[in-house]
Specification:
alpha/beta, TIM Barrel, 8-stranded parallel sheet, 19% strand, globular, binds D-xylitol-5-phosphate, binds zinc ion
Length: 216
């Protein structure tokens, strides 16, 4: 699979969100990662469907909605209607056996996510149901954190399992991904790279994304 760079708009300047999205799109972004937080599952609030709907109008890039919310099954249809192309849900918040097929039924790519404190084995029964698997490399809730120790090893462990079971499901990595460490995640087996502060807090998005792509 082609390796993909997914800027997370959580670290963008929300006062000029449209311009920020156009800038990363021009710079070679493959997906737009949108972090949806509810203040319950994670200790932060972000955005909901109206913002996704507005973003849908200004970019052709696929919108990757990462649902860090309780009862995600209540909202998947609304996110699909707002324009989401990819929807990921956490193993900690729902029954993946039910919610992943429901996301696919809506016509979206379905992602299964685990937090740093959840073992990769938790995902094994659901891998076949997912279009991609997201390994959180920070405790979700905020941009700009450092990756948690052991994250790279976790990606490698999952990659080994997927290979052994002949499952061609891409691994997405989210949290603390930067030009400086992206090669490490790629080497472990990640193929989709979410980066918020690692892109939006740099001066030159073109240079940053080009460098990232050269390392993966
Ligand atoms: C964290 C979010 C991430 C976040 C990543 O809960 O899921 O997508 O925006 O931000 P950085 O890349 O700055 O760690
Ligand atoms: Zn995210």
């Amino acid at each position: 699979m082609k390796k993909l760079i997914a800027p997370s708009i959580l670290s963008a300047d929300f006062s000029k969100l449209g311009e920020e999205i156009h800038a990363v799109e021009k710079a070679g972004a493959d997906l737009i990662h949108i972090d949806i937080m509810d203040g319950h599952f994670v200790p932060n609030l972000t955005i909901g469907t109206p913002v996704v709907k507005s973003i849908r109008k200004i970019t052709k890039l696929p919108l990757d909605c990462h649902l860090m919310i309780e009862y995600p099954e209540r909202f998947i249809e609304a996110f699909k209607e707002a324009g989401a192309d990819w929807i990921s849900v956490h193993a900690e918040t729902c029954d993946l056996a039910k919610v992943l097929p429901a996301i696919k039924k809506l016509g979206c790519k379905a992602g299964a996510v685990i937090n740093p404190n959840t073992t990769v084995e938790t995902l094994y029964p659901f891998c076949k149901l997912a279009d991609y698997i997201l390994i959180m490399t920070v405790h979700p809730g905020f941009g700009g954190q450092k990756k948690v120790d052991g994250s790279t090893e976790k990606i490698a462990e999952l990659k080994k399992y997927l290979k052994e079971h002949h499952l061609h499901i891409p691994i997405q990595v989210d949290g603390g991904v930067k030009v400086e460490n992206i090669a490490e995640f790629a080497h472990a087996g990640a193929e989709i790279f979410v980066s918020g502060s690692g892109i939006f807090h740099t001066k030159d998005y073109v240079a940053t994304i080009a460098q990232m792509k050269s390392y993966i």
